[in-house]
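Table 4 source record.
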Amino acid sequence: MATPKFIAPDISFSDRMQKEEEFFSRPFLLSYSGLNRLLYSPALFYNHYVLGQRDDVEDRNTIEGKLIHCLLLNPENFDKEFVLSAQDIPSDNPRQLLQTLFNHYKELKQHNPEDTREELHEFSGAIIDILSDMNLYQSLKTDTQRLDKIITEKHVSYWDYLKQSQNRTIVDHDTYNFAKSVVQKIKDTPAVIDVMGFFEDPLRGVIKQNEVELVKFSNNHPFGIRGFIDNLVIDPSTKTIKVNDLKKSSKDISSFKDSIEYYRYYLQAAIYHRLVEHVYLSRPEYKDFKIVFRFVVVDPYMQIAPIRVSDEKMQEWLNILDEKLAQAVHHFETRDFELPYEFLINTEVVL
């Protein structure tokens, strides 16, 4: 395959080929987000998954959605996934210095694990060097006086905050309070709580699970499919498996149908349906059960409601999923990620 034009210039041909061989030599699990990225731009998919050049940027709506998921479904994981933003932030120059020092601290942790320094005062030499580079507090006569400007209670607290925020999503207090209010309203909305199984009596044999990871491999695809189902409820009395996907919408709830098309949420719903079908309906105890899929939608105005997908609509989405997976197979088998599928197989696209 010729070198794609979209490859970043900072990677050599040999490195690209090595990463490509590594990627295709091991099983790959294609999620909804991966499939959506592949359909939108195979080049971005290639850079993200094959080359590992990840550039995900989460907007406020995405962060709100993740936070609502966590507080409602797995509140015990909040401290592992999130950290509240600092409220007493240093002024610009000290904050810039602390951020520069923190980047230095992270590099030391990565490349020099023998360096066990953690506290701000232990980096006095680096602080003096950064102050000199920034031409900050240089009118003071001694290094001790300069350090006293930086190693303060406020700056120590911010330093500890920077360390705590590593690998976690930072949320401001307004976002956190909004998410808490949404979660409380969900819990106070019987129609939503009922479909999510919060009212079900375990003595009836009802099984409720949150954040369920399901995987399926097929001989028809050079990859597997994977999904993390927000809420899954198995009810033997009605012989149903409820699959509920919590969505934080950036538009009003009445416009969610447009969001389904724009973000291709129908592919996510179809993937989840296929996964539940593969994992559960293949078991003898569930062979007569029916899968019922719902979006549980939250909009910016805290309007919350479940939206059920009909059997007919789900079958339509399953057919589309099969078509899109076939296109993904073409990209994988040809290792061609230059253009979207329709542009690869046609000399030109006619409108």
